[in-house]
Amino acid sequence: MANHDICTKTMWALSVPLAVLLVLFIALTAYATYSFHIFVPLAPDNDIDCAEMFNKSSENYLSYIENRTVLVPTRNDKNCFQIRRRRYLPSDMPKSMAGNHNMFFIRVVKKDYDFVEEVLTMMHSPIHFFCFPIDISADSIFKERMFRLGDCMVNVLVPRELFNTSTAHGTLSAHRRCLKEIDEFDWKHAVITAEHDIPLHSTKFLSRRSRRLRDMVEINGVHFKEETLLSADPNDTSSQLYQVSRNWIQHLCSMATISHSQHKTLYNYLMKTPDFNLPNDEHREVHVLEKGCDTNQYDVDGSCLYAMQDFPAIRNTTRLFIRADPNYDFGFIQCVHEVVFERTYFDPISNKNAMNYLYGSHKNLINDYRN
Asked: Are 329 and 70 in contact (CB under 8 A)?
């Protein structure tokens, strides 16, 4: 009888931890199955047939131009799992994107949280860093969602400090806060872009291009060597560095590529130049920066806002970023997302040559990837 009691107690003692382990295994399997797309790259799943948008005479294109889709905000997520389910934020690089040239992408934001997520998804990679300083005019829900995004992603930084970016020095201070945030990490180049800029190429393409700069700084396509930055006089308003940097800041800091070794020298110089007010929603720039703008839609600084009628031309442009408005034509932004996705995961040639593109080839790679 005593032996029987001992056996019963032993069986109960073993069954409890085994049951716990079984429950944990089932829960882990369910989680992995339910959220498998977090770890496997997913193509953008748009309602628009973006391949049709290359044909300006097609009925689908003409119908879309008459009824453009605009940004519809998603719900305010309460945890990281919801963000990861909605957006593919990869945990590893594609095999064709091997390399350790760490990039740092910085942009000041103040509205359109879902647009911020969309662009982050286009460019995200675990070997790069992303920083989003928030303008002081942002509403409470936008700030809450941005802070949560920064808390959820280890390589996404969202400083708690808010910035008045209506002035040149305020915007530069926001950039410097990001640059100081991870200065101890060995990132190679920082890419500064404006709030409504969207990329046209993969991060691999941007990384290759930045490597060629070495220790130089590029602002609006103009290169500046180390000796130029070291000897720069902030009171010399006739210098090329002053003229180019002022024009860059005036147009909402779109865009510049700054080497890690020179960012302190550059920003020390910029913060000593005269401060001035920047265009904003209340004060729009009357000067048009890009006169050949098919949409006739402009940002507050006079930059052209691109839309679906520009989509056929983007496969032949060498531009790195263009400006778009999600509240005017969000479908265009989604189709550009497909372009960037295909250039990232399918087409190593287009990462070297911007003239090569996949639509119009013998197969639709986006649909192949979804299936």
From this structure: yes
Based on its alpha-carbon atoms, the radius of gyration of the chain, rounded to whole angstroms, reads 24
**Residue 146: which residues within 8 A CB-CB, separation 6 or more?**
109, 113, 116, 132, 134, 138, 158
Rounded Cα distance between 125 and 323, Å, is 22
Residue 108's nearest CA partner among 40, 176, 57 is: 176
3-state secondary structure of 130: strand
- Residue 144, exposed/middle/buried by CB under 10 A (0-12, 13-18, 19+)? middle
User: pLDDT per residue over 190-227, tens digit each?
Assistant: 999 999 999 999 888 898 899 999 999 999 999 999 99
Residue 347 vs residue 104, higher pLDDT: 104
CB contact at 8 A, 325 and 71: no
CA–CA separation, 280 and 250 (whole Å):
11
Is residue 107 within 8 Å of residue 177, measured between CB atoms?
A: no
Beta pairing class for 103-106 and 129-131? parallel
DSSP 74: P
CA angle 228, 232, 233 (to 5 degrees): 165
pLDDT digits (tens, 9 = 90+) for 130-168: 999 999 999 999 999 999 999 988 889 999 999 999 999
Q: What is the pLDDT of residues 314-337, one digit of tens each?
A: 878 889 999 999 999 999 999 999
Residue type, 20: V
Cα–Cα dist 258/269, whole Å: 14
Residue carrying structure tokens 């989604």: 334
- Model pTM? 0.83
At 354 the pLDDT is 40
